Amino acid sequence: MTNINTNGYPEGGATYYYANGQRVPLVRDPQVLALKVSPGREELSPEALDVIRTFKDREMLTIPQYGIKVYDTSIQERAIRVLRNEAAVEMVTPAFRQTPQSPDLIFVTNRIVVQFKAEVSQEQIQATNAQYGAEIVEKLSYAPNGYILQLPKAEDVIATANAYYESGLTEFAHPDFIKRRHWRGVATIAEPCTQLSAPPLPTPVSTETRGARSSYLSEQWHLTTAKVVDAWNVTRGNTDIRVAIMDDGVDVGHPEFSSKVVLQHNFETGANNGNPMTDADKHGTACAGVAIAAGVKAYGSAPGCSLMAIRTPDYLGVADEANMFSWAADNGADVISCSWGPPDGYGTNDPLPDSTRVAIDYCVTHGRSGKGIPIFWAAGNGNESVMLDGYASNPNVIAVAASTDGEAKAWYSDVGAAVWICAPSNGGSRAIFTTDRRGSMGYNRGDATLGDAAGDYTNDFGGTSSATPLAAGIAALMLSVNGDLSWRDVKTILAETADKIGGAASYDSSGHSNSFGYGRVNALAAVQRAQNGGGTQPGAGPTISGPQSISRSDGAPTFQCNPRPNTYYAVEVATDYNLFGGGNRTDSNFYATYSDTPLLSTPTYRLPESVWGRLKNGARLYYRMWTSSSPSDWVNYAVTTPSANPQSAPFITISGGGTQPGTGPFISGPQSAGRAEAAPVFQCNPQPNTYYAVEVATDYSLFGGGNRTESNFYGSYSDTALLSAPTYRLPENVWSRLKSGNRLYYRMWTSSSPSDWVDYAVTTPSANPQSAPFIEIGDTIRTVRSARFAQSTLVRQIDEAHWRRDNG
Questions:
Q1: Is 258 a catalytic residue?
Q2: Half-sphere exposure for 189 (CA within 13 Å, toward CB)
Q3: Fewer CB atoms inside 10 Å of the end CB: C or N, the chain?
Q4: Under 8 Å between Cβ of 615 and 589
Q5: Active site annotation includes 222
Q6: Catalytic entry in 174, 254, 265, 283
Q7: Is there a contact between 607 and 573 (Cβ–Cβ < 8 Å)?
Q8: Is residue 279 flagged as an active site residue?
């Protein structure tokens, strides 16, 4: 449990919240205060006015849609203590950071976003909310049993959200954090990465080189490099296909977007107006031009497609961020392009909020009448691991890196396993020519050498911000020739038709490069593949489909199977898509029908219950189908998901029961233990691996190194082979050495080998040891007795936190 101090905030300046089933650390900033005062309410007291007078001239930021003003103050503690009791003050809270190194502040509101588990009844939900005084303010359209809840006080939000999740009643419970979004059009390396030297910026094209002509197509080298101009011989796009640009607004009156805008919305004001609002809003206009500009002077990659302009403010709560994606899906978006994310270049881990993750899942499962919306995401401009970015590394989006006019990696572009493809951008000798906010409000304030003399175009755009809408426009061309493609078909075709650049050594045995993904996009090849059927889309080849989700308490899933043009088939299922490419397959992570059954021919296939019993502890069940024209041999065989692209495999989300609330390895122990009790028992799920070791420590810093001794640290690997049982009890002799501490922190290392560290993973990274879960140790286990809390484990946890606060 989180310890709460007398101001209602976690002790020690650091706390945590949950994302994707894991604890994520938060650090309180002692100098920053967020304040919301209600207009027209009672007057402030003299003491409150005196406090405000000390910092009122040190305003850092205003977040207008939430009525919040942010101040720099040296008396944060006193200000909170005084102002929280004022009737005119709706909210007064500190600000937080993801880590001490994070440049961005995080603000809380008095709302949390919650999805209760499917088996939790409405009566349980109402009773739980009533105990907290939580009111339902909105039912989530994208998450069954999901709600936005409003609490009486913002200062209770983090602890309450944690308790909701720790109760086991919810799939997720996330504070409605207000966070900043960073546009990825300018490649900058932050101070912590100063060892990276940036090459010189490209030189603008001179007016002499440009010449006097009405078309600027020759300046748009990126369209030629990505074979977009060639693809226009097949299609320039269909007006029925809508590309949603989620950004800081689009200048919808620009001549390049004339008659193109079919819908627009501002998620700051709620108005149906997607135009820029502030002087700084210019990034979205450039992105929209790269995707769908008509070609008056600048061409988008899909000049014949339509535009949905969705203005995303710099600061937005995670609840509204998730609603933005469900709104796009419900209003007919065919492609979504996002050129923003966490700050670049700081090396910090920024997880995807659960509500946004589920809303993106909604887009790919419900969008386009169930075929799914391909969502393109800028990989990032920090020349760091894309895996640190929970947005771009989400497997349900298509992460786009940047390459140069020299077909090399752009120096700033992020790298890693999640990079799917790359597309041309700046970073070499030339940048990108595209639309600019008209007049003097854009990147080009009216200089012909920077785009055009009127200031309506810029020739110096770039970053992964530009690569992403270029790829999104290519996807729009693909859907223009084949609207039956699923989002996975689009993703797979882009990978299979991409051109390998950068040299063969850049790519692994599966054809993937951490710098280029599966290669630089080839629009012509992708559009032709889509036009010719695209592989596994309905009606063109073998297809297999299963339920979108299933509970562990349900019976085994059933699959719909169509092996056309063949007659016979076999099914493979796995808890990790990597197993389709090989790896350490075991009975607990992989099954293929051909291992014990002849090739099948029925239109449906039900997984055997014995197999389901072995595999259902995973978070997802991936599947694919092999087909043959022979009932006994592989003749004219085909496969729905190629082994070279296992990431594109469809999957069933598994929920309910089990010990895994998210994806990846998971370990959990009791919340508390008495020193007189037996050693604690841990629930261990090492998936997708099979073997594991457990580490425990009296201080979380020991997970990062330090002076480990027998009285403060133990690793099961020190005297035991790697384990595989679903539970692990700490040896009694180890417990006797460690139980004198106040807490026992724990984590788990996993391996695919029983004797060596192969494909290893860890539940709590050494770089973030403070996020490790822990067991409270005491002489007795304290229970707060209260009749009104007696029926709710969830409320007893909060009550115990307040007991600690009031009794020191």
A1: no
A2: 15
A3: C
A4: yes
A5: no
A6: 283
A7: yes
A8: no
